[in-house]
Design brief:
Strand order of the largest sheet: 1-2-9-6-5-3-4
Strand content: 15-25%
CATH topology of the largest domain: Dehydroquinate synthase-like, alpha domain
Number of domains: 2
Structural class: alpha/beta
Largest sheet: 7 strands, mixed
CATH superfamily of the largest domain: Dehydroquinate synthase-like - alpha domain
CATH architecture of the largest domain: Up-down Bundle
CATH class of the largest domain: Mainly Alpha
Number of strands: 12
Bound molecules: glycine
Oligomer: single chain
Order of helices and strands: EEHEHHEHEHEHEEEHHHHHHHEEEH
Helix content: 40-55%
Radius of gyration: 20 Å
Distance between the termini: 54 Å
Length: 371
Amino acid sequence: MAEISHQVHVALGARAYDILVGPRLIDEAGSILAERFPGRRFGIITDENVARTHLPRLLAALDGAGIDHAEIVLPAGESTKSWAFLGQAVEALLAARLERGDLVIALGGGVIGDLAGCAAALVRRGMGFVQMPTSLLAQVDSSVGGKTGINSPHGKNLIGAFHQPKLVLADLSTLDTLPARQFAAGYAEVVKYGLIDDAAFFEWLEANREEIFAGGPARGEAIARCCAHKARVVIEDETEQGARALLNLGHTFGHALEKDTGYSDRLLHGEGVAIGMVLAHRFSTRLRLAPGQDGARVAAHLRQAGLPTMLGDIPGTLGATETLMAAIAQDKKVSRGALTFILTRGIGQAFIEKNVEAAQVSDFLDEARAG
Ligand code: GLY
């Protein structure tokens, strides 16, 4: 019997699925998959780093359950989310003769989850897929909710499809080998859920941050609470016609900064989100919507978690404000000079504002550069 510490159901009717959280679910994947998807073959998509640490465990688990599989190992890193590697993955799935009823397994972090999900959406007009997220960011955010895709030179995640997984297996042991910087980056997405509409969860994080980082029971609980939160949002607004956009808190600034730093090691996605969430609070304060002390409290918590919180924390020189503004406009589309932003009235009180003047954002960014 698999040891499952938390289970969340994403009730999406015909596309419903479970998120299982447990200490060693990769080792137990053979029996879980054999029971849920009897007789199916699996195409595993992973990256070179994850292939070294976790792929042998997964292969042993599948072999142990007599499950047939193929493996596709791609380079690690954000630049893998491209047409070139999506094409490679799609062709490899076809070459492995996977049929429509077979499944893709995304074994890795957010990059692999997004790319493998996109490949699954395309091959034979839609194969099922299983998310096996191996980073904190993927376990609390990107593996849940069915957003799949790749990046374009025009911006991040601009190409893709909504395609829900059939199962998410979050193996907590993968977080023990995650580099500290990657763990902290994922933690930014954990904090995000508190900032959106759950001030009590933010307070709980303030009290439990050390235990979460140390790998105590609060870690699994935090992940399950984030997944439950995300499941609620996705059930209400699967294709982001409304409330799901709140999950983009901090992401418009963050994506612009990621683009400006070339999707490189200078700034990880979660680090961009951390700075972006602080900027969203500070911008809301500048617009006289939110008290300044809330933004300061958010920044203090993220700093304690080892995250950057200011533009000046990004190594190297940032592009001009106009360059950042061009990225912001592409990320969230301008409508007659106005931008859509996730703003806030304070911790746990985020909201969608569709009428932000580009000039106000630009002035604010000039100010934020100064410190
Ligand atoms: N990561 C934001 C969303 O899934 O909607």
